[in-house]
Specification:
Order of helices and strands: EEEHEEHEHEEEEEEEHHEEEEHEEE
Number of domains: 2
Shape: globular
Distance between the termini: 40 Å
Number of helices: 6
Largest sheet: 9 strands, mixed
Number of strands: 20
Helix content: 10-25%
CATH superfamily of the largest domain: Fumarylacetoacetase-like, C-terminal domain
Length: 287
């Protein structure tokens, strides 16, 4: 099942894709636009997803005309990134492969739609791209064993972990500020539930800039698989429905090129993960 959110920014409604790829509105059948129904239950919890699967999708209202797709999940509480989680990316970064996951956060205000423009700061000279597999939590978990970790996942999506390298690594060197600018976390186009992605460790992922392929790898190159990441993070914080883990990027980022290459106004990024669709963003510069 593929869940989407569509509509103007800040006014998105939940929908589901039908077999023809059309968007069917589920608000009237499921609940509120923010993804809650009955006693505050999250749309991402297993009982809610089962309820949506039981709907007669073909009978739901078809959303017609040109529509904007927003971030595929509403009400994200935490957006947690994982650094240096691909073997080849660690090599190109000139850094030793970590012996345990490297964690950072992105501000939730960085989240944007999968086809929205990416706005780079007027002073930015080193904004970079990073295609990533995003994991969306569906059930609360704390200290969950790795063997049970995937039971707490609602589904998967694409995230572009856009990063301003000078803000991230130079000066005071704070990853948070280099990764948290508005529009620096395009998310979607849809959330694909786990029944459609039985093995998150065997998915091709790729990214191109102006039709030139920059990244082309597979999640099998992860140092720490999804199950380990969910378990590990849950040792340090409770994960709740709607929390998102961006699981790291493979080799091919602009910082790793020789010479280095960064995004410029007018560039177009297209990125995808096998089974999860594609994103497309145009780069604009803030005035």
């Amino acid at each position: 099942m593929k869940l989407v959110r569509y509509g103007p920014r800040g006014q998105e409604r939940y929908g589901v894709l039908d077999v023809q790829g059309g968007v069917r509105d589920i608000t009237s059948e499921y609940g509120s636009e923010d993804g809650t129904a009955g006693a505050g239950a999250s749309i991402l919890e297993p009982r809610s997803l089962d309820r949506i699967r039981a709907l007669d999708v073909a009978s739901l209202p078809l959303v017609e005309g040109e529509i904007r797709l927003g971030p595929c999940v509403a009400g994200v509480g935490k957006l947690i990134g994982v650094g240096l989680n691909y073997r080849q990316h660690a090599i190109e970064s000139g850094m030793a492969a970590p012996t345990e996951p490297v964690l950072f956060t992105k501000a939730i205000t960085s989240i944007s739609g999968p086809f929205d423009d990416v706005v780079i700061p007027a002073s930015s000279q080193k904004t970079d791209w990073e295609v990533e597999l995003a994991v969306v939590i569906g059930q609360p978990c704390k200290n969950v064993p790795e063997s049970k970790a995937l039971d707490h996942v609602a589904g998967y999506a694409i995230m572009n972990d856009v990063s301003e390298r000078a803000y991230q690594l130079e000066g005071t060197g704070q990853w948070l500020k280099g990764k948290s600018l508005d529009t620096f976390a395009p998310f979607g186009p849809w959330l694909v539930t786990t029944d459609e992605i039985p093995d998150p460790q065997n998915l091709r992922l790729w990214l191109s800039v102006n039709d030139e392929v920059m990244q082309d790898s597979n999640t099998s190159d992860m140092l720490f698989p999804v199950s380990h990441l969910v378990s590990y993070i849950s040792r340090y914080m409770t994960l709740l429905p709607g929390d998102v883990i961006a699981t790291g990027t493979p080799e091919g980022v602009g910082m790793g090129k020789e010479p280095q290459r960064y995004l410029r106004e007018g560039d177009v990024m297209v990125l995808g993960v096998e089974g999860l669709g594609e994103q497309r963003q145009r780069v604009v510069r803030a005035s």
